[in-house]
Amino acid sequence: MQIFTCPFCGPREETEFHFAAEAGKHRPEPAEEISDADWADYLYLNDAPKGAAREVWVHATCGEFFVMTRDTVTREITNVTALPGRDG
Question: Is-above-0.85 flag for pTM?
Answer without folding.
Answer: no
